[in-house]
């Protein structure tokens, strides 16, 4: 599990991303008992969860290259937008949705496989 947000993954940048569900200015009611109205803490918690979910989906590339080492700013922007879209999805649906995923790929004689179990809430 990551404990640090990727560069530019902030509540302010999320709100400037113009999410379809609107800007986050307060903790969604469902989570108030856990975050006591601390919007920054709520955002950081869910952004970290989104980052970890993206890491598990992109397990192979992220095991070889850390986000901070990406030289192409467009790649970084795509990853950041993935975090924002995941948070928007959770906010819109009111609850985090956890996915079971698995993937297999063959390149020549090499077989790759990846599996993600949902994170325990």
Characterise the protein shown here.
By secondary structure, this protein is of the alpha+beta class. The chain is built from five helices and two strands. It is elongated.
Give a quick rundown of the structure:
With 121 residues, the protein is α+β, with helices and mostly antiparallel strands. The protein is 46% helix and 12% strand.
Features:
two-stranded antiparallel ribbon; alpha+beta; 121 residues; single chain; 2 strands; 5 helices; elongated
Low-confidence segments, given as residue ranges, are 97-101
Globular, elongated, flat, extended or rod-shaped: what is the shape?
Answer: elongated
Helical stretch count?
5
Query: Percent of residues in helical segments?
Result: 40-55%
Question: What is the chain-wise order of helices and strands?
Answer: HHHHHEE
Number of strands: 2
Strand content: 5-15%
SSE arrangement:
Layout: H1 11-16, H2 32-35, H3 39-57, H4 59-64, H5 73-93, E1 101-107, E2 110-116
Antiparallel strand pairs: 1-2
Helix pairs in contact: 3-5
């Amino acid at each position: 599990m990551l404990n640090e947000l990727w560069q530019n993954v902030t509540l302010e940048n999320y709100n400037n991303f113009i999410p379809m569900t609107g800007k986050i200015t307060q903790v969604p009611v469902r989570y108030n008992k856990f975050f006591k109205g601390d919007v920054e803490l709520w955002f950081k918690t869910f952004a970290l969860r989104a980052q970890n979910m993206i890491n598990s989906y992109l397990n192979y590339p992220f095991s070889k290259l850390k986000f901070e080492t990406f030289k192409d700013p467009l790649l970084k922007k795509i990853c950041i937008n993935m975090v924002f879209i995941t948070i928007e999805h959770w906010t819109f649906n009111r609850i985090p949705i956890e996915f079971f995923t698995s993937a297999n790929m063959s390149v020549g004689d090499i077989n790759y496989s990846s599996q993600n179990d949902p994170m325990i809430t």
